[in-house]
Structure formats: C-alpha cells, structure tokens
Design brief:
CATH superfamily of chain A: MetI-like
Number of helices of chain B: 14
CATH architecture of chain A: Orthogonal Bundle
Largest sheet of chain A: none
Number of domains of chain A: 1
Helix content of chain A: over 70%
Distance between the termini of chain B: 10 Å
Structural class of chain A: mainly alpha
Oligomer: heterodimer
Distance between the termini of chain A: 23 Å
Number of strands of chain B: 0
Largest interface: A-B, 44 and 46 residues
Number of strands of chain A: 0
CATH topology of chain A: MetI-like fold
Shape of chain B: globular
CATH class of chain A: Mainly Alpha
Order of helices and strands of chain B: HHHHHHHHHHHHHH
Strand content of chain A: under 5%
Order of helices and strands of chain A: HHHHHHHHHHHH
Chain lengths: 284, 329
C-alpha cells in the first residue's frame, strides 16, 4: 500500500513538474505565500499611514504603485491585501472541503434514504444563486473577514460532496474494500483508511480551483463594499476606491486587478495541472 | 415522455419547500431586527411606533407562525411589501426589474453560443495547434479575470479615454424626446459594455466545455465509420460530430442560470443598470427583508425551471430518452 502510494506520488509529481504552465502557476502561488508572510519586512510604508501631502500620486520610485486618495502607499496596502486573499481562499475552501467530503462520504457509503435526503439537500442549495446568498448573509451578519470565510465555505461545499459521493460509489464495490469488510474492519476504518485516501485526488483538484473562486468572491464582495472593511486593505476594496477616482488615478484600479487576475490564474493552472497529472489517460 | 415529465414535476415539490425553508432560515436566524434598522437612526420614532411596526411585519409572532404566514402568502404569489419608504409590493418591484436582467442575459447568452461553438470546434479539430493554445490561454484568462475589474478597465478606456461609449444606465438624458431609431441606437450603445463583460465572463467555460465535448465525440466509433465511408471532413465534423457534442451543452444552459443571476449584481451595480441584481444589492444594503427573501426565492425558482427546461430539451433532442428507452431516467 505505502509503496504504491509513493510510486503514485512520484509519477504525479514528475508529470506536474514537466507541465510548464502548472510550474509557473506554482511559483506565483509560492511567491504570494512569501510576500504575505514577509509583509512587514517587504513593505516600504505602513499600510494605513495617512499622508495628506502625498495624495493620489502616480507610480514613482518612492511609491511603486502610487498612493491612494488618503496618501497611503498602494504597494504596501496590496502586500497586506495578499494576506487577506490567501487567508480567505484557504480557510473558506478548507471549510467547504471538510463539509463536502463528510457529506459525500456519508451519502455514498451508506446510500439509501440517507443518500437521497443529503443529495436533495445539495440540490436545494445548488438552486440558489450563490453570490446572492453570500451577499445576503454577509450583510445581515457583520461584514468581516471571519464571516466572509465562514459564509463562502458554508455555501461552497455542494460540488465537493457530489464529487466525493461519486468516487465513494465506485470505490465501495472494489475488491479491496470488500476484503477490508470481510476482515471485519469497522465502517469508520473502511471510510477513512480505504476509501477516503483513494478519493482525495479529485478533491485536491476541486479545492485548488475553489481557492481561485473564493479569492474572486472575496474581492467582488469587498469591491461592492460588503467585504473586508476599510481601513483594512484588501485587493477588492482598493479597487473600489479606484472606481471613485477612475478618471484621475489609473494605478488605483490597474494593480490590484492584475494581482487578483494573476493569483487566480495561478491557482487555476496548478489545479488543472494536478488534474492532468492524476488522469490515468495521460500515462506515457 | 409524459411519465418523465410528471416525475420531474413531482420531484420539484420537495425542492420548492426546501428553498422556502432555507430562504426563511437565512434571513430570520441571523441576528439584527429589521425594525431596528429602520428606526434606529430616527430619534422621532417612539417605542410605541416601533412596536406598531413590529406588529405590522408580524415580528412579534413565534418563528414558525411567521414562516407559515409567509409561505401561505407566497403560494398566492404575494411576496409582501417592501420595507423601503415607498412600501410597494415586492412582487411589483421584481416584475419591473426582472425583464431587464433576463433580456440582458439572453443577449449575452446568444453571443456566447455564437462565439463559443465555433471556438470550441476549431480548438478541438486543430488540437494542440496555435489556435487551440491561444484559446486555452484566453479561457484561463476568462476564468481568472474579475468581471468588475474588466468593467472598470473598459469604462476607463472606452468611456473616459476615448469617450466612445456611455458608462452608466440604459438611456441618455432626453431619451423620450427622440425617435425610435435614435432610441434603439442609444440603447445599443449603452448595452455594448455590460453585454461584452457578461459574455466574456461565461465564454471561457462554455468554449472549453464545447472543446472537450467535441474531442470526446470525435473519438467515437461512429465518427471513424463516417470517415471510413469517405465522407468529407467538413460533413463529419459539422454534421455527425457537432450535433452530438451539442447535447450536453443544453444541460449547461440550465446549470448556468444561478451564475448568470448572481453575476448580474456586480455589473448591474457597476454600470447602474436597473435590473434585478441592482435591486437585490439595494435591498441587501437597506436590510429590506421581504425584498431580499422575494428575490432569493424567485432566483432559486428560476434556476429550478432552468434545470427542468434543460432536461426536457435534452430529452427532446436525444431519441434514446424521447422514446422511453432511457430506463435510468
């Protein structure tokens, strides 16, 4: 078992490394990690220091990405904004993945009435325009990073649960699961030791793509003024101030938008890369 | 077919009940009371008036009674009165906004299909060629670009820098005083930017889907047979393969409804288009609960209908299901 695992991992990693798009995506993701963990060291200014004498300055040597309407350094704010995006992406997707995996496992493994009930619940949740639901709940509760992460997570698990359920349905009847059952393994052991590890591949792909979506959702919310609240910087709310000064300050909307696009693009490339690498049809 | 339809309609009943429960729960199980929002800022509102308001909205009743009242009004298509100062019925507000959103989405859907089908087919038939690579890049960019950012850039370029296009609303000032053709031209100019943004947003997914559908179909035995018969590549691709590759796209149409409705919030509020997305945004900001609940329910029901229509369309297009041999369904 372990030997097969490490063999698989080697094959998948090798294929991932030979995919230039996935590698460049991975590098961007790593850089974003570094930038956000080293934020206080990298940033030339405090993200919230007001400077009434240097308002709406275009990019220059002292302010790489210019300054905003309150004289704050846009580059420094964006570095701190990267932290927010990263946190929201990972925590929201973490929540969604855990909920989705548990529901998918239960539905697929036990089948019958439990399965029907859970899947109807999934159907109902999928009927709602997700962005409407998120918008409504975030506003009614307080808009804050914590609430945004929780709500994106709680409204984003349905896809994972369908995916896991489908995997479990096909794994459940395989010989090795039947063998484990014949040996008298408990349900929990079969689920977590034999089924779950084999279903993790597609979940990993889905989660990577989900991070990109969560980052986009957070920035849309912040842009609409319902997400991360100023003065705390987020790429979305920097862009919102860019909208107000559209005619005078192109740097206020250009850089944060590029950051969002490049970051989400990178997660997509990594996710697609893992998907290709895991696909048995691509064995060469 | 009739059996299939009846079964599908019956299955919708529990889903509809679920939709109302979740909508109600989302709004009522979260803290903060609408009456407080409406009156907290206004020192002239006495405690007594506040009580009267609370009674008017039946917030003093237990929660299951509130739900029961709400649902029984809902089945009569009465969505209640808006909390906003004009106090108009929610149903009337939605009715005047919904067509704008739907029409906008239909225009961009037509554009999407007109673009995505040829792009997908070309990418599939010239797999790994330069066109395929470029569409892949374009598709990823389409996934990754935030639509509100794209809107801002287009507004900046075409509205401000070049000054070619209007950047907000649907009509220019003095719209009513002009003739029909002028009005049409004016509307078209206002629609260019929002429609382009909406189209770009979904084009990526659709063309990628089309491409993989085409690749799968082109690998089928009957395509090899058609080629072996000596049919021209054109006939094979456009007659034999395309029609089969289009089948799953029908389902995608149904599935895209919630995304389209959800996405309308963003570009309707950016371009100040008075559609349902903008109405929802305003309702949410004002904590106008009846309005928010009404739109959530309508949005979910539209999705349900979209799925039903897509499945029926699929059944009509696929003879295996049409002739009742699709036992699984």
């Amino acid at each position: 078992m372990t030997r097969r695992d490490s063999y698989l991992r080697d094959v998948v990693l090798r294929r991932l490394r030979s995919n230039p798009l996935a590698v460049s995506g991975g590098i961007v993701v790593l850089v974003m990690f570094l930038v956000s963990s080293l934020a206080p060291v990298i940033t030339p200014y405090q993200p919230n220091t007001l400077d009434a004498y240097h308002v709406l300055l275009p990019p220059s040597a002292s302010h790489w990405f210019g300054t905003d309407d309150l004289g704050r350094d846009v580059f420094s704010r964006m570095v701190y904004g990267a932290r927010v995006s990263l946190k929201v992406g990972f925590v929201a997707v973490g929540i969604a993945t855990v909920i989705g995996t548990i529901i998918g496992l239960i539905a697929g493994y036990y089948g019958g009435l439990v399965d029907s009930l859970l899947m109807r619940f999934v159907d109902i949740m999928l009927c709602f325009p997700t962005f409407f639901l998120i918008l409504a709940i975030v506003t009614i509760r307080e808009p804050s990073i914590l609430n945004i992460m929780l709500i994106i997570g709680f409204t984003g698990w349905m896809g994972v649960s369908r995916l896991v359920r489908a995997e479990v349905l096909s794994l459940r009847e395989r010989d090795f699961v039947q063998a484990a059952r014949a040996m008298g393994c408990s349900d929990l052991r079969i689920i977590f030791r034999h089924i779950l590890p084999n279903a993790m591949g597609p979940v990993l792909v889905y989660a990577t793509l989900g991070i990109a979506t969560a980052i986009l959702t957070e920035s849309s919310l912040s842009f609409l003024g319902i997400g991360v609240q100023p003065p705390e910087p987020s790429w979305g709310n920097i862009l919102a101030s860019g909208k107000e000064f559209l005619e005078f300050a192109w740097w206020l909307f250009l850089f944060p938008g590029l950051a969002i696009t490049v970051t989400t693009l990178s997660y997509y490339l990594v996710g697609e890369g893992i998907r290709d690498a895991l696909d048995p049809r691509n064995v060469r | 077919m009739a059996y299939y339809l009846a079964k599908r309609l019956l299955l919708m009943i529990p889903l509809l009940i679920g939709i109302t429960v979740i909508t109600f729960g989302v709004i009522h199980l979260t803290p903060g009371e609408p009456v407080e929002m409406q009156t907290a800022m206004n020192p002239k509102v006495s405690a007594e008036a506040r009580d009267r308001l609370r009674k008017y909205y039946e917030l003093d009743k237990p929660i299951h009674v509130q739900y029961y009242r709400w649902v029984s009004r809902l089945v009569r298509l009465d969505l209640g009165k808006s909390f906003s100062p004009d106090g108009r019925p929610v149903a009337a507000k939605i009715r005047e906004r919904l067509p704008i959103t739907i029409n906008l989405n239909i225009i961009s859907l037509i554009l999407e299909f007109a673009l995505a089908i040829p792009i997908g087919v070309m990418a599939a038939t010239h797999r790994n060629g330069p066109l395929d690579r470029w569409t892949t890049v374009f598709v990823f960019l389409g996934f990754a670009t935030p639509l509100f950012w794209l809107s801002l850039i287009l507004m900046y370029l075409f509205g401000i820098q070049f000054g070619w296009l209007p950047i907000s609303g649907l009509h220019s000032l003095g719209y009513a005083t002009h003739g029909f053709w002028w009005q049409l031209w004016d509307l078209a100019k206002h629609l260019v930017l929002p429609v382009s943004v909406a189209t770009f947003g979904s084009l990526a997914g659709l063309s990628r889907y089309m491409r993989s559908g085409m690749i799968d179909t082109l690998g089928q035995d009957y395509i090899t047979t058609a080629r072996a018969k000596g049919l021209s590549e054109r006939v094979v691709v456009y007659k034999h393969a395309l029609r089969n590759a289009l089948l799953p796209v029908i389902t995608l149409l149904g599935l895209s409804v919630p995304g389209l409705i959800g996405g309308s919030v963003i570009f309707e509020s950016i371009f100040s288009i008075p559609g349902m997305g903008q109405l929802f945004y305003q309702g949410v900001m004002a904590r106008d609960y009846p309005l928010v609940m009404g739109i959530l329910v309508i949005g979910a029901v539209l999705t349900l209908l979209g799925n039903l229509l897509a499945d029926l369309g699929y059944a009509l297009a696929d003879p295996r299901i049409r002739h009742g041999r699709g036992g699984a369904l």
